[in-house]
Each structure stands twice: as structure tokens, then as C-alpha cells.
């Protein structure tokens, strides 16, 4: 068997092997479902997780390499590298699009345009690697890794990092808040996440330039309905009334909620949610006391939500920790990527004065005006949770508020140093070897 035929056989085996592997990874467990229609609403533009992007690039790079080798034929790579790369990318994109189309009928899969784009980039990388291999690594380095091309590549990388970082900051805005959700105290509106304890005060604020906006103040003295007593509100917020209960006798000094009893506005808590969505800011001041340290769920102290899976904001209790779920494009409709834990807030049943202030991307929580917990939700805290397919990603507040940002910066800088440093060093060595 001559060398050319052996090489073509090797490329064919690479292509067949990669096609088989990709089909298995993308379509397993092959349980296709057809209900008479194409569920276009399942498609998404974004990747399921950030991790999917590099994985999809790397998955299609070997396929692009093998396919470029087959398309090049005998000695054709040097004569028409751009045509080979174009055909390689086109065929891989068509293959990827077919796979994403098949995923419409796999209930466990999510079709994504981002996957097709990443697969195309992987195919282009594979074709480039084949061209370098066909030319000879040393010659390819000398021809393509010039100072001009190196600087262009570095600037493209820096520009991509800039826009990606901007995206991460925007992903922790409150732009996806739903203004139709009610305010609920002591549970979800559907009654599935009961909290037991007492509330004495709740105030929800915003700001306009340097002036304060008060959206609602509830002083839980007396009996239901608990009206908004804000003196500055043009249109008072909806009153809080019993959705279930009360079962526990009320003493008029704060409202007590527990099993079978919770409060709701009944109608949308519109003004506050609409403001937060536009301003990416809110301030909550409340005084609460838990009835037990071992509540789970998380048990909902207060929530602007529709049910257990859809919310704008929740303050809850898990064990003796305060938990905060905040709906953002990054965190999702349930606010779980990440969800924030403030440790030890409910270590006893004493009344706690809690404030929660979000000024994107900074979340600030104070307890009894003495303890302060601060976390920056972007870029790092928005970046790392998106590497996991798990629904929940918990962050314990405390310590350096930017502790997730520094590793993100390290990855961005480190990747540039490794990739561009290695290319520059390899090109320098190739030129030195050619002159020797």
C-alpha cells in the first residue's frame, strides 16, 4: 500500500470514527418522540452552558482534520487550502445542523444555534491543523505566525474577551423580571414552601438619581389586610391579605405565619418589579424572626414569585442560613445559578434586622446593622456556575466580594499567555532552525 493511499485510509477512519462518536454523544439514548409537530419553541440561541462551547469546538476539530484530508486528495492541500477549509466547514455545519434538528425529537436534548456555530469553528480549526500538517509544521509556523498575524490574533482575542465580559455583566441585570408576580409572605403563592416565623416590618425601595423611591412599607401591626403605609407612594402597593389562615393566634405585634397560613398581595406587585427590571437596583429592609432553625425548602420568608420554580426574588431559610434567589438571565427563572447563602442568620429565634441591597452586579446584605456580606455577581460568579448542568449552584457570602472575579481574570490572561506565548515561541524556534 503506497503512502498516499494509507494517508487517505487514515483520514477516512478518522472521519468515520468521529461521526460515530458524535452521533452517540449527541443523540444518545436515541429515544425519539414524534407528536405530530416540530417543537420549535424548544430551540435556543445560547449554549446550554458555557462549557459546551469549547467542548463543541474540540469535538469537531478532529472531524474537520480528517475531512480536510479526504477533500485534499493527493497533494491538493498546498494548491487550494481555502477551498478545502470552506468545504470542510460547510459539510460539518450541515452535519451539525442535522444533529440539532434531530434533537427537537429527543426530550432530554436542547437544540441550540450556538452549538452549530461552535461546531463550525471546530471544523475550521481542524482544517487549519490539517493545512499546517500538510505544509509541514515548521513551514506553516514561519508562513502564518508572523508578528503582524500574531498581533492581529491577540487583538481579536482581547476584543472577544471584552465583549464576553460585557455579556457577563449584562447577564446579572434584572432584565428578565416578570411584572405579573405577586408579593408573598411565608410561602409560595401555590403553598408549597412554608416558612414559620414572624415579620414585623417590610420596606421596599429604589432610587432615582440621588432621591429615594419608596415602593411599599408594611407595618405588620394589627390585623389583615396589611396596607401599604408609605407616605410617598402615588399609587399604594397592593395590600397583603391572608391566602390561607390565619391558624396561629395573632397578637398584633408583627404577623406570625406557619403551616397553613401565609399572606399574598393577590395581584401583581407591578411597580417595584417594573422599576427593578429597568434600574437593575432594589433595596429591601425587613425585620424577621424564625420559629425554628431547621427549616428547609428553602422555606420562603418573602417572595415575588408565581410558584416554586418561577420568581423574581426570594428571601428564604435553609437550616440557620438566609438564602437569596435572584432572577437574572444568568441565574435563570428560579434564581439558582447561583443562589446566595448568608450563614448563621437564624442561629436563634431572636428578631433580626435584615437589609438586602442589589446594585448590579453588587449584592450587599446586612444583619442587625453590624454584619455585612457583599458579593460581586459578575463577571466571575456569572461565569463559573455556567460550567455545570446542575440546576443549583450555591455561593456562601462572606470574605472577598471579588473572589470569583480573580480566577476569571486569571483564566482569561493565562489562556492568552499559553496560546499566544506558545505560538510565538514555536515560530521563533522554527525560524531559527531554518537559518541554522
How would you describe what is shown here?
This protein is of the alpha+beta class and 436 residues long. It is 39% helix and 22% strand. The protein has two domains: 3-135, no CATH class; 183-376 and 391-401, no CATH class. It has helices at residues 3-27, 52-72, 81-102, 113-135, 137-144, 147-170, 270-279, 380-383, 405-435, and strands spanning 183-185, 197-208, 211-219, 241-244, 255-257, 262-264, 281-290, 295-305, 311-319, 321-326, 339-342, 352-359, 362-367, 371-376, 394-396. The strands form two sheets. The chain has an eight-stranded mixed β-sheet with strand order 4-6-1-8-9-10-11-15, with no helix packed on it. Strands 2, 3, 5, 7, 12, 13 and 14 form a seven-stranded antiparallel β-sheet that branches. The chain is elongated, with a radius of gyration of 28 Å. The two termini are 36 Å apart. The mean pLDDT is 91.
Q: What's a concise summary of this model?
A:
With 436 residues, the chain is of the alpha+beta class.
Domain unit count: 2
- Average pLDDT rating: 91
Q: How is the largest sheet built, in terms of strand order?
A: 4-6-1-8-9-10-11-15
Uncertain stretches:
none
Helix content: 25-40%
Number of strands: 15
Distance between the amino and carboxyl termini: 36 Å
Question: What would you report as the Rg, rounded to the nearest angstrom?
Answer: 28 Å
Structural class by secondary-structure content: alpha+beta
User: How many helical stretches?
Assistant: 9
For the report, how would you describe the main beta sheet? 8 strands, mixed
Amino acid at each position: 500500500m503506497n503512502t498516499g493511499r494509507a494517508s487517505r485510509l487514515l483520514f477516512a477512519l478518522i472521519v468515520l470514527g468521529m461521526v460515530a462518536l458524535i452521533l452517540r454523544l449527541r443523540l444518545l439514548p436515541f429515544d425519539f418522540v414524534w407528536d405530530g409537530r416540530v417543537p420549535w419553541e424548544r430551540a435556543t440561541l445560547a449554549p446550554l452552558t458555557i462549557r459546551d462551547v469549547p467542548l463543541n469546538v474540540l469535538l469537531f476539530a478532529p472531524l474537520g482534520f480528517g475531512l480536510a484530508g479526504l477533500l485534499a486528495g493527493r497533494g491538493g492541500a498546498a494548491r487550494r487550502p481555502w477551498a478545502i477549509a470552506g468545504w470542510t466547514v460547510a459539510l460539518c455545519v450541515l452535519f451539525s445542523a442535522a444533529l440539532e434538528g434531530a434533537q427537537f425529537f429527543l426530550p432530554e436534548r436542547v437544540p441550540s444555534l450556538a452549538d452549530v456555530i461552535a461546531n463550525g469553528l471546530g471544523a475550521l480549526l481542524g482544517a487549519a491543523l490539517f493545512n499546517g500538517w500538510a505544509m509541514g509544521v515548521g513551514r506553516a509556523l514561519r508562513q502564518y505566525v508572523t508578528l503582524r498575524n500574531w498581533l492581529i490574533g491577540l487583538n481579536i482575542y482581547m476584543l472577544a474577551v471584552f465583549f464576553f465580559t460585557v455579556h457577563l455583566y449584562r447577564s446579572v441585570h434584572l432584565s428578565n423580571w416578570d411584572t405579573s408576580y405577586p408579593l408573598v409572605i411565608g410561602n409560595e403563592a401555590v403553598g408549597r414552601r412554608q416558612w414559620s416565623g414572624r415579620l414585623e416590618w417590610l420596606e421596599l425601595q429604589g432610587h432615582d438619581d440621588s432621591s429615594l423611591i419608596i415602593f411599599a412599607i408594611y407595618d405588620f401591626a394589627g390585623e389583615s389586610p396589611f396596607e401599604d403605609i408609605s407616605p410617598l407612594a402615588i399609587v399604594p402597593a397592593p395590600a397583603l391579605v391572608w391566602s390561607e389562615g390565619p391558624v396561629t393566634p395573632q397578637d398584633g405585634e408583627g404577623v406570625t405565619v406557619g403551616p397553613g397560613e401565609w399572606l399574598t398581595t393577590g395581584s401583581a406587585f407591578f411597580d417595584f418589579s417594573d422599576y427593578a427590571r429597568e434600574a437593575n437596583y432594589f433595596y429591601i429592609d425587613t425585620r424577621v424572626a424564625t420559629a425554628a432553625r431547621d427549616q428547609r425548602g428553602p422555606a420562603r420568608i418573602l417572595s415575588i414569585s408565581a410558584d416554586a420554580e418561577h420568581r423574581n426574588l426570594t428571601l428564604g431559610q435553609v437550616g440557620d442560613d438566609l438564602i437569596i434567589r435572584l432572577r437574572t438571565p444568568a441565574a435563570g427563572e428560579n434564581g439558582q445559578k447561583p443562589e446566595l447563602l448568608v450563614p448563621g442568620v437564624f442561629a436563634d429565634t431572636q428578631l433580626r434586622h435584615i437589609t438586602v441591597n442589589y446594585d448590579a452586579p453588587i449584592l450587599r446584605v446586612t444583619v442587625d446593622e453590624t454584619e455585612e456580606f457583599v458579593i460581586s455577581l459578575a463577571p466571575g460568579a456569572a461565569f463559573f456556575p455556567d460550567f455545570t448542568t446542575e440546576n443549583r449552584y450555591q455561593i456562601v457570602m462572606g470574605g472577598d466580594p471579588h473572589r470569583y472575579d480573580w480566577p476569571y481574570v486569571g483564566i482569561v490572561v493565562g489562556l492568552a499567555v499559553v496560546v499566544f506565548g506558545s505560538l510565538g515561541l514555536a515560530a521563533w524556534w522554527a525560524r531559527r532552525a531554518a537559518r541554522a
